[in-house]
Amino acid sequence: MKILKNQTLDQLLEQVDRQTDQQANQPEVEATVSEIIANVIKNGDKALKEYSQKFDKVELDDLRVPQADIDAAYKNADQDLIDALNLAKNNIVSYHQKEIQNGFVDAEQKGVVRGEKITPLAAVGLYVPGGTAAYPSSILMNVIPAKLAGVGKIVMVTPPQKDGIGQAVLAAAKIAGIDEIYQVGGAQAIAALAYGTESVPRVDKITGPGNIFVAVAKKQVFGQVDIDMIAGPSEIGVIADDSANPKEVAADLLSQAEHDKMARPMMVTPSEKFAEAVSDEIDRQVQTLPRKEIASASVANKGFIAVVDDLDEAFTVMNAIAPEHLEIELEDAMQYLNQIKNAGSVFLGFNASEPVGDYVAGPNHILPTGGTARFFSPLGVSDFVKRIQFVTYSRDALKNEEKAITTLARVEGLEAHARAVESRFN
Ligand SMILES: NC(=O)c1ccc[n+]([C@@H]2O[C@H](COP(=O)([O-])OP(=O)(O)OC[C@H]3O[C@@H](n4cnc5c(N)ncnc54)[C@H](O)[C@@H]3O)[C@@H](O)[C@H]2O)c1
Ligand SMILES: N[C@H](CO)Cc1c[nH]c[nH+]1
Ligand SMILES: [Zn+2]
């Protein structure tokens, strides 16, 4: 993997920023996606089926996966898979239960009650990627927080496969408790969820990760529906020094590189020797991977190791990049938690290998990418609820505040506002 030495912070950030721009704003992708969305709005299921044929090479009669197929997949699945999914489910549930919000009611001022009511969304659409790999784990990550939030209707979409949706995906859907699944992927799936078609119901919010077409489509339908975040091609940033093991760090970097040709494996280290050892390990290990074509492309396109002066500079660089995953491969890693300002999910210490979080730890693996961890958070229970505010006033309490209200209303030139309150007393 490419090693960048003697770069100023600005040079390093310029390179990463440029990459971010390319990823997020590719004009051709934007144009393709808006054409797909317009076609789905106009032609509904017919457009979905045509795109499935074009992009996924699958001819479909029905978009909905029959319940019998979901039940059969669960029944016939390997026991090890069921056990692994159940272990992951339990850990994801126990983590996300702690995120549940209860709202509040206050009665601090005499005659006034104020509050906030946490209300689950009525219908959400969950995108489960399935282009170059099947992601049963992403089903659990998507569905569990939605269920804990109390969402009424959960619809899942995932790209069609030549031999039908994979058994592991359907078994995970069964374990997660979802039974409305549509086999449609990419931008067309996002359009279907946002606008509805004859088969696919319109929802209030779309969540879940996907490739660049999915990410751009979510951006384009935002406003018609809500979205969780831009969760695009995977990223891993590592801060490491000589105390880490180059073989393990290289393996962790490749774990994310194998997701996508556009995935970003990135490392910052104060040690040139360590940088070279990791780079050599990556070149060696990548050749042994079944998905070596994808992983090598990711390393070549987006990967880099930056050698910096010290650990403080390493944190400055990583905070500016705001990676989806951040591994701290340093002794006593917990002590650095306060230095981390921007990252989706942080893995502290030599044993917290990123795939622990992808599968079983419990925190969500649907995370912001492309620098958006500066302002987006991981998917969680709060994504599936909205807040409704309420107030009630006694007549005396209203009288007490009448003057303030009418003064502000008249300063804003809004006479009807003032008179609405005065009408209670005249
Ligand atoms: N950030 C996260 O939390 C997170 C989690 C899991 C996975 N991921 C990412 O999700 C992504 C999954 O990507 P994927 O491709 O495997 O599956 P995907 O389901 O996201 O995309 C597949 C779909 O892309 C569409 N498509 C493919 N080529 C197209 C083209 N030329 N024009 C228009 N549409 C086209 C097709 O409709 C296809 O069904 C990866 O980038 C992975 O890194 C991210
Ligand atoms: N690392 C991915 C998020 O970027 C999530 C995932 C699913 N399966 C394996 N990994
Ligand atoms: Zn992963």
TrEMBL record:
Pathway: Amino-acid biosynthesis; L-histidine biosynthesis; L-histidine from 5-phospho-alpha-D-ribose 1-diphosphate: step 9/9. Catalyzes the sequential NAD-dependent oxidations of L-histidinol to L-histidinaldehyde and then to L-histidine. This is Histidinol dehydrogenase. The keyword ATP-binding does not apply. One of its GO terms (biological process) is L-histidine biosynthetic process. Gene3D superfamilies: 1.20.5.1300, Nitrogenase molybdenum iron protein domain. It is an enzyme of class 1 (oxidoreductase). It catalyses: L-histidinol + 2 NAD(+) + H2O = L-histidine + 2 NADH + 3 H(+). Pfam families: Histidinol_dh (PF00815). Keywords: Amino-acid biosynthesis, Histidine biosynthesis, Metal-binding, NAD, Oxidoreductase, Zinc. The gene is hisD. GO terms for molecular function: histidinol dehydrogenase activity; NAD binding; zinc ion binding. Belongs to the histidinol dehydrogenase family. It comes from Secundilactobacillus silagincola.
